[in-house]
Amino acid sequence: MITQIPEPGSSKVMFCGDTITFTLLLSQPVEGDAWIRTDLGRANVSRREIIDRVDRDEIRLNEAWHDIKMVRDGNLFSITLPMVEPGHFHAKCFFLERGRATPLWPYGENCTLNVDSSGACSANIIYNAFVRQFGQTKASANQNSSASDKSSEAKQPSDDQKSSASQPEKENNRIIKLLDSQGYTVIPPSGKFRDLVREVDFIFEELGCRILHLLPVHPTPTTYGRMGRYGSPYAALNFTEVDPALAGFDPSATPLEQFMELADAVHFHCGYLILDIAINHTGWASSIHECHPEWLARSEDGTIEVPGAWGVRWEDLTRLDYSKKELWQYMADMFLLWCRRRVDGFRCDAGYMIPAHAWGYIVARVRQEYPDTIFFLEGLGGGIDATRTLLDSANLNWAYSELFQNYDRHQIENYLP
User: Fold this and answer.
1) Over the stretch 290-310, which tens digit does the pLDDT of each residue have?
2) Which of 195, 240, 189 is nearest to 216 (CA)?
């Protein structure tokens, strides 16, 4: 009988720079050697197999596995292994008695080791920013809030004063309604990347945040298939572009260059920049509609499908069909492009709607070039089993959910687990 520690079948989350010690104990003295069989230290090989399975249609061979001899001390064998690279790994010890060809394994499954970047170990306070809400938009909100506070402290204004104060706002609303009724599109001014740059010192130095997470920065529908006055940021028209409405006109800096100014400001504070990208769907009339209509999910009558959750259909979005492996390759290229633009990680909106094998391929492609990239899963609306699979074998880093559209005790009790 042999006993392994850590126990076979156990799982651990570790970080680059950690070490783990495996021991194998024999119940009685026997001549022979003990080994650990693992794919630790060979993440590049494992990732290459995942990639080649899609890009070259090759069978995955698990060639990353190798045996490392353990050190013997009486009936006890041990080995300490360093965690040197992020990835999803396995390990299990075995004993090979002298003169025999069949190894003796402890009972149970392989140990699973999910290793993250050392930078993701702790102090990961995330500041969530919607660029539209900064600059002029934020100033107007602050002025309205300040005016409201002052008016509550002062004595109540007269009816004449109330009428005078609200007249410009009433006139603006009247004009907007008139334009709306005639089919015009009225979109208020947006905050800019440079407005947010001016807030970076406060976010990182005063608040002590370490990660700036941006809601999607892609162009969104302003007329065709638009939802609401502004259009949803999750209705991307092009995954590789930034919305020019988020940049100030500057002959010396394109909108993308102004985005990278923000990335530089974050990195000056040794922070991480995470970009929110919703790859499950696009907005209506997106570039994918034109270039790859075959990637759209359609019903039997040809109608383009729209995603949704909690019984709500997101009518401003069009669902993508992840049975197409060419779509996986397109998305991996897109994520890599943003990494080259100085993005450190991604929030995976509605990530549970994407097959685990697709995520596994995308993560492998990205980590071949940028091994410390963070993938932050939105588990909201998905089952716990899907979250476990995406964090484990697909090797996403983190997941979160929240109480959202859960209004009474029964709804909360059902969702909380």
Assistant:
1) 999 999 999 999 999 999 887
2) 240
Check: CB of residue 216 under 8 Å from CB of residue 233: yes
Q: Is the pLDDT of residue 169 over 80?
A: no
d(CA 389, CA 403): 22
Q: Residue 37: beta bridge partners?
A: 67, 92
pTM over 0.85: yes
Check pLDDT > 70 for residue 363: yes
Nearest C-alpha neighbor of 3 from the set 83, 115, 78: 78
Token readout for 321 is 């069909």
Here the contacts of 166-169 (C-beta below 8 Å, separation 24 or greater) are: none
Read off the pLDDT of residues 11-49 as tens digits, 9 standing for 90 and up.
Answer: 999 999 999 999 999 999 999 999 999 999 999 999 999
In whole angstroms, what is the distance from residue 59 CA to residue 393 CA?
17
Radius of gyration of the chain (CA): 27
pLDDT at 346: 98
